[in-house]
Fold this protein.
Amino acid sequence: MESARGLIEEGTYRPSRPPGYPLVEVLFAPLVNLGPLATNGLVAVVSTLVTLRVLDLARAHGAREPGAIALAFACVPTVWVASVTSIDYLFGLGLALAALRAAHRERPVATGVLLGLAIAARATSGLLLVPILLRAERRLLTVAIVFAVGAQAYLATVAVAGWEGLVPLGGARPDALFVLRQGTLGVFGEIGLIGVLLASALALRASRGERPRSDAAAIVLPHLALYLSAPYEPEYLLPAVVGVLLWIAPRLEPRASWALAGLLLASSLVGVRQPAPVLVDHRRRLQEMTLVEDVVEAVEQCTEPTALLCGRMYPKVRFALGGKESVGPVDLHVSIANESRLRRLLAEGVRLRYVPGIEGWYRRRTGLEVSAFAEPLCP
């Protein structure tokens, strides 16, 4: 949102976070001052288009019930929540899946342009080049167009932040149990995970030892490797979810396909040992609304120079403060990971404070314990 606001208000580009998400930032720019309803609404429209693309691919892969497979995708808890969140995951996924379908139809120019745009939306969408090259007839032409379109989108990042601006933020690596739990229950929920495991078992039985479809394996394996190398968000596995569903699709009986969709729908709305993901997300949003109100009140009471670290709450806090980066003596920041810069701010008499609740986010994204050098803004 910060990047989109800079584009629309100042005509300048600043990547929202490395390496930048230029296409999504441009699409959000006209909507950013209209508030979350507008940007989240755009994402919901994109999610619908992605679901239709999954329907098309499921049909192309021989699914007996492509509608059930598309519904199953839409009902995956992580997809559901991402569909009403102003972030880039579904933009990149939708364009990459469109590129894959164009490759099926032997359209190298369309394939290259669509995958290049997918990379412009989210750099890791380039991993879909693997299954695309397995399908593409004119591989060199496709790769050249992908590079031309995708690389051009990031020239602004290089101009603003140099080549180091293309390096994603790192962070402290979570423990193995957290990585496993987030990559399974965190994606599908409890009931949904059971449904996917049962559907996979039925698909294995139906395959009778045949080799997996190249599309499915080539989609799943690179994204699984990406997640294991940087296991910070379950949404990193959304393309792998599509790959799994495309592998399952032609091997499931119609009733089993609809049962899978039903279990994933239930998984989003019903919890067993933990609360339902969609309800958890709704409760979190309500809590964040209250928190933002408290933050605004506390900011207005600040009288000394303050650097406020907002983490993932930055867009909401800034919107609530009228879109301003600075309010009185308070400057808003997403994060400050450079220790020398932190020491310099402290030496200059700037008070470091943070929005409560971002501790885990800060640790994963920067590798630093925010509470070790800053104090909470409000209780």
Summary: The beta strands are 306-309, 326-327, 330-333, 351-354, 375-376.
